[in-house]
Amino acid sequence: MAADQEQRVDSSPTPPPPAAAVDLDLAFAADGAFAPGLVQAAGAWADPLDGAEHWHGLLETWLTQLAAELPPELRAPSYSLGLSLVGDAEIAALNADWRQQEGPTDVLAFAAQDDDLDGAPPMPLPAQDGDADGDDSDEDGSDGDGWEGEPLELGDIVISLEAAARQAPEHGHDLERELLFLASHGLLHLLGWDHPDEASLAAMLERQERLLAAG
To answer: In angstroms, rounded to a whole number, what is the distance separating the alpha carbons of residues 83 and 61?
Structure first.
């Protein structure tokens, strides 16, 4: 009888606890001079008013998913960043001023916590290589418990809506998907990812696809 009442032991692994949600302070802007057809194709993501809510929810979700992969210097319960949708002319001017490259590009990322992304290794970054530049983030953000400081400033993502519209057909998807792809790429750059070679680019693109699939 005792053998019949023997309890079964569940040997399946215990799932990890869900990551604590982070808070995001997002500054969103969309150029009001886009062609109506372009705005329509982009949906709510390019709307100067409704777009803020859409982007806020998505970027906050992505940051929560990425939290465990970040070096200590970039771990915080709250972040702030800017996201701007602009035209080719504006992003070309930024490209020339900041990268000394002519012509428009699709996305630019200006990281507040790392002044030299071109030299940064691909994520996950070793803790000693984190390049937080001081300010309040090092003191308040060294541990995630009892955070009382301001949100950790990550920087700015700038996307050319016109460049995204040109690229979307080449990549076999619609403009909305292209915008999300470029935003995920810009966010990973703000968090220290880089792609100096084919292997690191492949890793970064794979992480983007997982963000898009789970977002």
So the answer is: 15
- Which letter does DSSP use for residue 35 in this model? -
Distance CA 164, CA 107 (A): 9
With CA atoms as reference, report the closest residue to 183 among 81, 64, 37: 81
- Can you tell me whether residue 108 is helix, strand or coil? strand
Tell me the two tokens of residue 213: 């699939």
Maximum Cα interatomic distance, the chain, rounded to a whole number of Å: 82
Question: Is the CA virtual torsion 195, 67, 152, 90 positive or negative?
Answer: positive
The tens digit of pLDDT for each residue in 36-73 reads 999 999 999 999 889 999 999 999 999 999 999 999 99
Residue 215 DSSP one-character state:
-
Dihedral pair phi/psi, residue 173, rounded to 5°: -145, 180
- Whether the pLDDT of residue 23 is over 50: the answer is yes
